[in-house]
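Lecture notes, continued. The same structure-token format from the folding unit now serves as the input rather than the output. Read the line below as a description of shape only.
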């Protein structure tokens, strides 16, 4: 059976590939503590998608005979090969940010004079907290052998949060004009490094 594999399909295959045989509930918990920080998706997919992948032969499925009759899924060789093929493909698509604060900033001229300031204040606090959480997770995971690649997205997350925090602090301190000046300065400094 040939099926269309989506990002959610590879998410399930990858999680099972990393953690071994897993129930949907275990996949949800693992996703919440790892990729959920940078890849939002409906958790309901972690219940339907494994069954679909099992029907296609990419996962094997076993079920408890008593109790809650949990289903546990394992990666098959066909599933492992599908995952490897996906990993071999270079990725070149637009980096997507879906941030309601950016949407509000875009429309802020329709608000009152304090709209941007209130938004900047809230965003500085939000990004400080998120950065703190990412750094704490990174500190916990940094010394674990064989986790270097898994913390790569977390390192990128820290850098994104640093950039967001710097932007909103600039907006709060000097408005959008000040943020633009600092952006130009930063772009020049980074260009000089090449």
């Amino acid at each position: 059976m040939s099926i269309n594999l989506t990002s959610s399909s590879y998410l399930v295959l990858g999680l099972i590939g990393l953690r071994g045989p897993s129930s949907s509930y275990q996949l949800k918990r693992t996703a919440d503590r790892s990729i959920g920080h940078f890849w939002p998706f409906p958790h309901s997919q972690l219940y339907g998608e494994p069954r679909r992948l099992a029907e296609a032969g990419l996962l094997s499925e076993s079920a408890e005979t008593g109790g809650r009759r949990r289903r546990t899924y394992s990666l098959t060789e066909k599933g492992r090969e599908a995952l490897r093929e996906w990993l071999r493909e270079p990725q070149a698509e637009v980096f997507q940010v879906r941030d309601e604060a950016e949407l509000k900033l875009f429309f802020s001229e329709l608000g009152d004079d304090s709209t941007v300031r209130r938004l900047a204040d809230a965003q500085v606090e939000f990004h400080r907290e998120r950065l703190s959480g990412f750094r704490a997770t990174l500190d916990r995971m940094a010394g674990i052998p064989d986790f270097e690649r898994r913390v790569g997205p977390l390192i990128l997350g820290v850098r994104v949060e640093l950039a967001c925090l710097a932007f909103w602090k600039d907006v709060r301190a000097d408005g959008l004009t000040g943020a633009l000046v600092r952006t130009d300065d930063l772009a020049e400094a980074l260009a000089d490094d090449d």
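Point for the exam: DSSP finds seven helices and three strands in the chain.
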